[in-house]
Amino acid sequence: MPSRQHEKFTNFYQVEHPLISSKLTLLRDKTTNQKLFRELVHEITLLLAYEATQLLPTKEVEIQTPMEKTLCHTLAGLDPVILPILRAGIGMVDALSSLLPQAKVGHIGLFRNEQTLQPENYYFKIPEDSEKRRFFVCDPMLATGRSAVRAIDTLKERGVKDITFLCVLAVPEGVETMFKHHPDVKIYSASMDRQLDEHAYILPGLGDAGDRLFGTH
Length: 217
Ligand code: URA
Prior knowledge:
alpha/beta; 32% strand; binds uracil
């Protein structure tokens, strides 16, 4: 499944696959109901995660098949951490956990400080030894990029070095912001949409991902 690296934002990979395109079409459709929306986010995340995990290190192990001993490969190193940005990021956790069943799951919650207009943490919990672990940060929408940048700032303040970001939709504004602040963080997305509107919603987009996942609109 090829992922296309962006010419200008070299940390951005658009994962291209006929299954992703057709699931994305259903996801964008405003008549798609909550159950199907949730399932589609799950399925698209599985496909994104296949690409986003391709650089995980492996090590050789010897096992015994019913026939003979053989050398095989297994994931090496400490188990990674999945970090959803609350709340919409939660919609991507089950898919990542099913592929990485040993992964820890952290959480980060951000709100917008109405004075500074900057995102601030209201909740942050990750494993003690996180600086040694690989992180997969997820949020379906990379819109302004401010929350993603703040979440990654927070991880780096705790010494985390190896971070990959997964989203369903991104826009150039958000990718540029991430590239400016964290060019080392690889972003895997199912689409690069056109732009943000005046309320920082993605166009053509899919609306409010959290509301559509959790039925709160
Ligand atoms: N968050 C959403 O849920 N939707 C957008 O379009 C932008 C940010």
